[in-house]
Amino acid sequence: SAIIEIDHLSKRYGSGTAALNDVSLNIEEGEILALLGPNGAGKTTMISIICGLVRPTGGTVRVGGHDIRTDWRAARKLIGLVPQEILLEPFETVRDCVRFTRGLYGEGPDEAYVEQLLRSLALWDKRDAKTRELSGGMKRRVLIAKALSHRPKVLFLDEPTAGVDVTLRREMWQVVRELSAQGVTVILTTHYLEEAEDMADRIGVINKGELLLVKPKAELMGEFGKKH
Ligand code: ADP
Ligand code: ADP
Questions:
Q1: Which-ligand-closest: CA of 92?
Q2: How far is the CA of 159 from the centre of ligand 2 (A)?
Q3: pLDDT tens figures, 4-41
Q4: Does the ipTM exceed 0.90?
Q5: Contact 121/145 with Cβ under 8 angstroms?
Q6: Which of ligand 2's atoms lies nearest the C-alpha of 131?
Q7: pTM to 2 decimals?
């Protein structure tokens, strides 16, 4: 069943052109969905609205049945967001980072869960390291651990592999697959067809604020005339 229901969603910033125009989409529980589109297509706007960072101009979004306008507290408990930018407290330890975010979500301490999370992201050995000592890939995994600290059912990844080398890209791909296997719904944005193709079960193509089509990966690849 659908964990996220997007109905006739629109967004206009100020008096500018529509960043999103009448987008409707259901995201199914447990799937990996890629939102594919060029820069400026509206991808970040879409996930920012679902995550409550940007206010829609029109339309509705429900997360787990909760309308984000009227029932935001319940909706946001179900959501974790990994932002595009890596911004971490440089002198904080990995474990404290995750504890802190859990606290922000109003969740009490749960050391067993924090350990499980750090182990699953191959960060347990680095639990007492300060974030500034970590490699780029580890920092990205810390951001994922923070986003998962309150056990959301949906994880958003905004351009997870932008500016990342091939090895790191593979690593992100692994992490996403594992999360999905654990039952987390994953929504990622990308402007690389290859990335959407590698990672996702279903691909939505966005351009100029319009959701042009949403298809299972296999079908879409067929339509692109196939290169593999
Ligand atoms: P994408 O994530 O696909 O690159 P965005 O959602 O960031 O696209 O942007 C969609 C459109 O909305 C672009 O035309 C962009 O310039 C515009 N936009 C995004 N954020 C803002 C903002 N805060 N104020 C005004 N315009 C914005
Ligand atoms: P801005 O809001 O201008 O982008 P930031 O909030 O990114 O500034 O940074 C505020 C201050 O903290 C700046 O002096 C910046 O150099 C410093 N800073 C930001 N990130 C780090 C970091 N990872 N390590 C050390 N100093 C940082």
A1: 2
A2: 22
A3: 999 999 999 998 889 999 999 999 999 999 999 999 99
A4: no
A5: yes
A6: 23
A7: 0.85
